[in-house]
């Protein structure tokens, strides 16, 4: 993989106001308006950029795309994949600035396809990256070029999703933190309103069930090229996931590395505790949507646990969402 340190990228942001946003159905509620494009709710200010991806992103057969539903552990997956493929290039185990994961937020190290601003993910910069490329997206498969999923010559995809109640709670906290003034307790959206929209599928890159199902079915169709992961398994056994991921990426840990603990060091380096302690992740951040919102990197490291929904959702809410999940995933083989 040839991922050099990409400039700043974050999929939920861009300063431009979209022309398309004025023509397509749009809803307020989250920290920025959402626009429905091809059955997917996108941040309105990003619609034009994402519309361009399907026609103008040129997938290569040796690309690896880290695809995630938002708030599923993208930051973690990017850190792990970057550390794995670059373990012989950088001294990732060193304490000094030579370690990119110490100097930059992991979201910056693997560019989001088609996200302009700060250069890293706009389509020209992606096209200029040497092969093999390590890329990322929050887009559903239906908004990526068909060549990504071609039976022959399609890309390898690592998909990561998360138990929906935890994903919802993470989303709610994150959106509120993006609002300027949130330090004073101002909320972009109250929990009940956020929950109603989540259950309608109206969240960034939602409906979540369509997102999960598209990649789930693709993993059944092309099991050797699509690795389907859940946040919960990363939490339960990160070492197993790191080893599987390395093998999937074509750079398995050799016996000598395992006996020297290199795989364990990757797990440690990418852990919530280690990453959230780095200065850049404590104090760094970026403005987005023309300065209307601010993403502090610390907001990408909130709790990092499974089951935190119980501290925020009522039993009624949990039952309602569980029932929705059962209904939407019925017969698919995907369960939570
Ligand atoms: P994104 O959708 O903006 O790309 P993403 O990284 O997918 O963000 O999700 C953030 C969640 O992953 C947070 O969950 P929480 O709100 O429930 O706490 C964050 O804490 C969690 N996360 C980020 N990095 C790690 C990590 N290294 N280990 C475990 N969880 C992590």
UniProtKB/TrEMBL annotation:
Any one Gene Ontology molecular-function term assigned to this protein's record: sulfotransferase activity
Keyword Transferase: yes
Keywords, sorted A to Z: Transferase
Enzyme Commission numbers on file: 2.8.2.-
Residues covered by the Sulfotransferase domain: 62-333
Similarity section: Belongs to the sulfotransferase 1 family.
The name this protein goes by in its record: Sulfotransferase
Native organism: Oryza brachyantha (malo sina)
